[in-house]
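Protocol step 4 of 6: structure prediction from sequence.
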Amino acid sequence: MLERYGHGGDLWTAEEAFNLPKEQFLDYSSNMNPLGPPEVVKEILSASWRDIVKYPDPAVRELRRKLAQKYEIDPESILVGNGAAELIDLIIRVVKPNMTGLARPSFSEYEEAVHKTGGKLTNIPLLPEHQFELQWQDVEAALPIVDLFFLGHPNNPTGKLIPRNVLSNLLQSGRKLVLDEAFMDFVPQESEHSLLKLASTSQDLIVIRSMTKFYSIPGIRLGFMVAHPDLIRQLRQQQVQWSVNYLAQKMGVAVLGDEAFEQSTREWLNVEKPWLIEQLRHIGLEVVPSDVNFLLFSFPVSSGISVKQAQKYIGCQGILIRDASLFEGLNERYCRVAIRLREDNERLLQALRRMMNDLTRSGGTGHA
């Protein structure tokens, strides 16, 4: 199984599974910005490699100041971490909710963090008949037993923002709310949807952001959270020392100033996303409308194709896709793919067309 460790982007496992060198894979299983990393990352590596003999700033002051300036919030409301994954785990360890409400399907690390602390979970369904949008009546049904909601905004793997009315009701519910905004940078009119500013002064709202997706630096590990300064101080006391390394801090400061890269990314996605959705639908796939840089789709029942068959078929051709049936709430027909550059997307579409023709004709038993 390609997602042996619970994630896409595992080129080492892909190499073992398909007997191809890691460097030859076209990776649609992880949702990185194909325009990145920005050029300034190369400059940091070239100019600063000798400085790794120094300890990093334990308070991550320069990057926190830069984030505070960009988002117009108090730097004391910001905690930087070793990617969003560390921060997810840290929040659950410190807040210690008894019952956590999760929308399903959603990012598996929310569940894993809760299980590590012995907490309990209740599921809130995201249904295809609602285009996988969170419905207030389903959240409301969970209110009597939930003391913390942990939700993707936008959600992974569905790519959907939480509707405004649901957010408004949640904020008035008296429950703690954690929003994972790891993909918010890709959303048009980001500032209209993000709750970063509100989180900096709220007692009940925490927002997590990733810097690895938009700037395409997952190997560096960098993310931050925003919450009331009182909670940030509690979280910082429980954070592992030297969590954010020197190069990560330098790169974070540098990329935040690259406005040309941000603009290029939004221009690319504004063109490529609707085009790829149209092309996938044209070959018979059922695509969920997305607010971000990845797409969830399903193979039609009539095709008899499962995502595991599809993953194997096009994996042998050096293309990796995400088995979305591993997300609770999705069946064996669901797949998630990143949106990449046009040349790559055309290669993906060609492989999917060939597979649809081959496996549909053979009743889902064709071979690569």
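Step 5 (inspection) to follow. The radius of gyration is 21 Å.
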